[in-house]
Amino acid sequence: MSQDRITQLEETIAHLTLLVDELNEVVTKQDAELARLSHLVRILTEREAEREQGNSGGVVLGDERPPHY
Question: How far apart, in whole angstroms, are the C-alpha atoms of residue 37 and residue 57?
């Protein structure tokens, strides 16, 4: 194998290593964001369930008729 070919392969490996490191950083950030958003969804779901159980009323949603009909 020629020295030029070895150098080319080493450069390719270096670029791929850098790319893998960058992609790993992106995936790590996305995982943290996904965990944060999942936590927020869980909180909002619990709040909505509590609101429905409390039947606090006052807000007409969707096709519900207001009480004066």
Answer: 28
DSSP labels for the chain?
Answer: --HHHHHHHHHHHHHHHHHHHHHHHHHHHHHHHHHHHHHHHHHHHHHHHHHHHHT------TTPPPTT-
Contact at 8 Å (CB) between 66 and 60? yes
**Token reading at 2:** 């020629």
Residue with tokens 């943290």: 32
Please write the tens of the pLDDT for every residue from 12-33: 999 999 999 999 999 999 999 9
10: its two tokens? 């080493």
